[in-house]
Design goal:
The chain is α/β, with parallel strands linked by helices. Helices cover 48% and strands 12% of the residues. The chain has helices spanning 16-27, 39-50, 69-83, 107-135, 146-149, 156-176, 194-207, 209-221, 226-237, 263-268; strands at 7-11, 31-36, 59-63, 88-91, 138-143, 181-187, 248-250. β4 (88-91), α4 and β5 (138-143) form a beta-alpha-beta unit.
Length: 289
């Protein structure tokens, strides 16, 4: 098992991709703490996950709003007390947030999305970084993806937060590199989860005809299996990926199963990173006057 005897905290673990990640971690031998805001869904998820656990494995749950500094700190303290240590943090919790032309969105709804999608990644990380540094090892995994790499008209708060998450990931990766803490983000692909349901419920008026049509096709095709993103998280949580850090990796498109064979190239380059494209990158020379 790839995660035997490892310990992990997984935010947003009561449903969708978060629950799939938690299930894969348990199957691979990890003891886990999951959190979410919905206590009923959280309790049901814990019961489901406990059925996958083997002897000695712990599956625990705690209600938490990860956008709250106080609650994120309490969650980290709970995980450390119950598990003895936390070796892996998966920052999965997030929402699509309000949809519609940016100038029409109530400001509180727009900023609330930023709080959950950005602060909710930073705060659990901040709470556990001192323990990772003390241990001289650790893994932090962020969930990002299409919102970071492409414009998302009419879902601007989500897009802005996810782009910020990637730069936060890259920054923390550099800060924590001397302490052997690997920090990466994954793009799980277009998933048929509650996010898709929200887009379809919003309709063309909220998200625009192009995005709505794309969502309809995604629903019909079945989307990317949750297991792809969960398997990538297992890889990044395992010792096999040690030394791979500061990267945004696609579960659907990148050959991540063998990334450890390319550690030197990854360390020396901006492969799997967000960077500004200049004319020379596209074979253009605009400096001649």
């Amino acid at each position: 098992m790839k995660l035997k005897d490892r310990t992990a905290l997984i935010t947003g673990g009561s449903q969708g991709l978060g629950k799939a990640i938690a299930a894969q971690f348990v199957r691979e031998g990890a003891s886990i703490v999951i959190c979410a805001r919905d206590e009923k869904a959280l309790a049901e998820a814990r019961l489901d996950l406990e059925k996958l656990a083997g002897p000695g494995q712990k599956v625990l749950a705690r209600r938490c709003d990860v956008s709250s500094e106080e609650q994120a700190g309490e969650l980290a303290a709970f995980a450390l007390k119950e598990l003895g240590s936390v070796q892996v943090l998966v920052n999965n919790a997030g929402i699509y947030g309000p949809m519609g032309p940016t100038e029409t969105i109530p400001w509180k709804e727009w900023t609330r999305s930023i709080e959950i999608n950005l602060y909710g990644v930073l705060l659990p990380s901040r709470a556990l970084i001192p323990q990772f540094k003390k241990a001289g090892a650790g893994k932090i995994i962020f969930l990002s993806g299409g919102g970071a790499t492409n414009p998302l008209p009419n879902i601007s708060s989500y897009a802005a937060a996810k782009a910020a998450v990637v730069r936060l990931m890259e920054t923390l990766a550099e800060e924590l590199r001397p302490h052997h803490v690997d920090v990466n983000a994954i793009a799980p692909g277009a998933l048929n989860t509650r996010f898709l349901d929200e887009v379809l419920a919003g309709g063309k008026a909220a998200v625009g005809e192009t995005f709505y049509t794309k969502a309809l096709k995604q629903r019909e095709s079945g989307g990317v299996p949750l297991e792809k993103g969960a398997a990538l998280c297992v890889y990044l949580a395992s010792t096999q990926s040690d030394g791979i850090t500061g990267k945004l990796i696609s579960a659907q498109w990148d050959p991540w199963e063998k990334l450890h064979d390319h550690k030197d190239d990854l360390a020396r380059s901006d492969i799997y990173a967000l960077r500004r494209i200049v004319p020379e990158d596209r074979g253009k020379n605009w400096n001649n006057r």
